[in-house]
Specification:
- With 331 residues, the chain is an alpha/beta fold.
- It folds into two domains: 2-99 and 299-328, NAD(P)-binding Rossmann-like Domain (Rossmann fold, 3-Layer(aba) Sandwich); 101-291, 3-Layer(aba) Sandwich (Rossmann fold).
- The chain is 34% helix and 15% strand.
- It has twelve helices and 13 strands.
- The strands form two sheets. Strands 8-7-6-9-10-11-12 form a seven-stranded parallel sheet, sandwiched between helices. It has a six-stranded mixed sheet with strand order 2-1-3-4-5-13.
- Helix 3 links the parallel strand 4 and strand 5 (92-94).
- Belongs to the D-isomer specific 2-hydroxyacid dehydrogenase family.
- It holds the Pfam family 2-Hacid_dh.
- This is 2-hydroxyacid dehydrogenase.
Amino acid sequence: MEILAFGVQADERPLIERAFRGHHEVRCLDVFLTEDTAPIAAGHEIVSTSVNADLGAPVLATLASGGTRMVAQRSTGFNNIDLGVAERLGITVARVSSYSPYAVAEFAWALALAVNRRVVRASTRTRDFDFRLDGLMGRDLNGRTAGVLGTGRIGEAFARIAHGFGMRLLGWDVAENSVCRQLGMAYVPKEQLLAESDLVTLHVPLMPETRHLIDADALKTMKDDAILVNSSRGGLVDTAALVRELRAGRFTGVGLDVYEAEAGLFFLDKSLQPVEDDTLARLVPFPNVLVTSHQAYYTEDAVGQIVDTTVRNVLDYTAGRRSENVLVPRS
């Protein structure tokens, strides 16, 4: 059987081809799954997709009409998939329920440190042989407060690093993490966490109840000189509200690896095209903002685990097995 994999990055391709070797043939495409590209999948029982694939009702209907019966998504998030429609069409859906939490946690810290110490601005200056320090002053993180929204495996890994910096830890989640407790984390209401934290980081899934978790009111609750980091899902932050606060001169730094309207933008080269997203166009130029293109997960370790789990999901499907990764079971 040939598996059709959409949205495969150049670095990812050899890992996918090696993982499937000896099991199934795999055809890797660099294009993402959309309404326009969905017809390519005709005749393929199994397709694999990336986190920015469009798996809404029209795309799923096209896949089903072409004979697709299984979607193996190469990500933990699945807010891009209409699971109800998939079930109605008889399409099995599986995801990668977990992979290296360190990849995302470490990158979140890279964003936090970069905006705190003005690393991007400093690098740009030195490329022009401008070695002044004006405007590059940061702050010690030791002794300051880190607020972790979402204390699962990634939030815990972030908290461990924060503990190493000597930071006070505040947490917010539906369930407490005993390891975070042992690190000295105090669980508090979200409003208290936002009001007291010097660094706020997001590690929660995107669901209807968490959409715009950081909205206009939440942003106003935060300290004027706080740092905000989001390496989870773009929809957790009301970006338009964030831009308004940045225009008012607030926040030491903002590090975003995700953006709520990133589909159709991230993972693509748009450098020669006019910027059509007005919100993103206003956000990126702020000197205290660093936006990266959803790369927090992108390490050899994490991607290797994602690919291996995807292969196992495909093998489970063909063998009629069901695992914790299945979102819509085989009918």
